[in-house]
Amino acid sequence: MVLRFFSLSISSSKSKRLTTNNYFFTTTTTTPPFKFLLRYLSTAAQLPLQSQSNNNFNSTPSIVPLTRSLLSPRPCPCPFLPLNNNTTFGSLRPTSRCFTTTDQSHHRDSINYDVVIVGAGPAGLSAAIRLKQLCRQNDVDLSVCVVEKGAQLGAHIISGNVFEPRALDELLPQWKQEEVPISVPVSSDKFWLLTRDRAFSLPSPFDNKGNYVISLSQLVRWLGIKAEELGVEIYPGFAASEILYDSNRKVVGIATNDMGVAKDGSKRETFQRGVELKGRITLLAEGCRGSLSQKIMGDYNLREKVQAQHQTYALGIKEVWEIDESKHTPGSVLHTIGWPLDHKTYGGSFLYHMKDRQVSVGLVVALDYHNPYLNPYEEFQKLKHHPAIKRLLEGGTVIQYGARTLNEGGLQVNETLFFVLRNTFVGIEN
């Protein structure tokens, strides 16, 4: 079951239908589970809620998929918990987890899972998929939830990506037989040393034979579909803001952001407390310098216990260009070092030819640079005016752009293994 929280439609014979991409909720006047969750969602998204009679409606709670079917969840053993009002909220199919409702003006509502994963990037979704695969192999049924701060999967994924498929071969061996957004194999691999106006070819230290030039955000969306098919519950549009501890300081889950908070911190009329997502196991796959991961490391002194070195960071800036077809070579990969960065600044650039006449060009600059006046954005503009790069981009059009931070520390900055900190956060992505 996947809830597209910010693209809902309330459906009935009397209420207006709002547009949606994936699901609509059927309104009833029964007292369904999740009523507190839907109140939370509708308040956050400021959706209109209609009070209606149930004479003409099916009173069975249901969520209706519009684009694809999901595995039917098991009946919920806990009773439906009534709320003392006559307002009709969208209803959902019950699941196997128990839910608690409390006075929402003071307390959070909570949902219980076996595993809660924070972050729907490649690491978080792969972990969820593998857990569900192991459940099927061992005839065990565990509830797995993934929380993602982006409004949709892939919304916060930026990567100029040459993809090595070995991990995907192990996770989903039949992926090549499916409609997966991995279709441009590497056709050439170059490595240049740039000066202000020249480019010198170097022996390439990379081995990209058998790899693919892809859009990582598109791959994440596809992984989300595979996770849904296995029964993983994905909650996009909700940022995890707090680690939950029990009385023994054991991690028992996370809480999402409060909604309806003004810039000055005051509570608006639409204020709603976040939801507690409790799990026996909590996996943090937040990416670079995740807020909850940083909190865990500080609370348990993870770096000090293993004498890990300090993490180092870089800033990556990327644009996607649409260029002339005569200049486009699908699968061509170029990496550069040198200009526009000086010899004291760690970094380099990349240029990947994707499909549909698109080229991904970017610059990565380590944030430990010595020159206080260095501006990574301005260095990126210089790069695009290098004769070898300008020749390719001239006459083209920028269709996408973005930036993100990267971990550069490597294995020497890893923390103790008492906690599961996935992939990018610990700086071990390939």
Please summarize what this structure is.
Its cofactor is FAD; [4Fe-4S] cluster. By secondary structure, the chain is of the alpha+beta class. The protein has 8 helices and 22 strands.
Structure write-up:
The model is unreliable at 1-96 and 98-104 (pLDDT under 50). Strand 5 and strand 6 form a beta hairpin. Helices cover 18% and strands 29% of the residues. The two termini are 31 Å apart. It has 3 domains: 1-101, no CATH class; 108-158 and 218-257 and 269-310 and 413-430, FAD/NAD(P)-binding domain (3-Layer(bba) Sandwich); 165-210 and 312-407, 2-Layer Sandwich (D-Amino Acid Oxidase, Chain A, domain 2). Helix 2 packs parallel to helix 4 (216-229). Strands 5, 6, 7, 12, 13, 14 and 17 form a 7-stranded mixed beta sheet that branches. It is of the alpha+beta class. 39% of the residues are buried.
Secondary structure blueprint with pairings:
Elements: E1 10-11, E2 23-27, H1 35-45, E3 63-65, E4 90-91, E5 99-100, E6 109-118, H2 122-137, E7 144-148, E8 160-163, H3 166-171, E9 188-194, E10 199-201, E11 212-215, H4 216-229, E12 233-236, E13 240-245, E14 251-256, E15 259-261, E16 267-272, E17 275-284, H5 291-300, H6 302-306, E18 313-322, E19 332-338, E20 347-353, E21 358-366, H7 376-384, H8 387-393, E22 397-407
Parallel strand pairs: 1-2, 6-7, 6-17, 7-12, 9-19
Antiparallel strand pairs: 2-3, 2-4, 5-6, 8-11, 9-10, 13-14, 14-17, 15-16, 18-21, 18-22, 19-20, 20-21
Helix pairs in contact: 2-4
